[in-house]
Amino acid sequence: MVILFSFLMSCAIMADSYIGDEPATGLPMVAPAGMGGMKMMHIHVEQITADGLDLRFEADPQKFEVLVEMIDRGECEFLAPIKTSLRAVRIADRVEVKGDVRTAVGLPCARCLKVFETALNSHFALTYTNRREEMEITADQDEVELRPEEINRIFFQGETINLQDAIQEQVILAFPIRVLCSEACRGPCPQCGADLNEGDCGCSRPLSDSRFASLKNFNLK
Question: Phi first, then psi: what are they for 96, rounded to 5°?
Answer without folding.
Answer: -90, 125
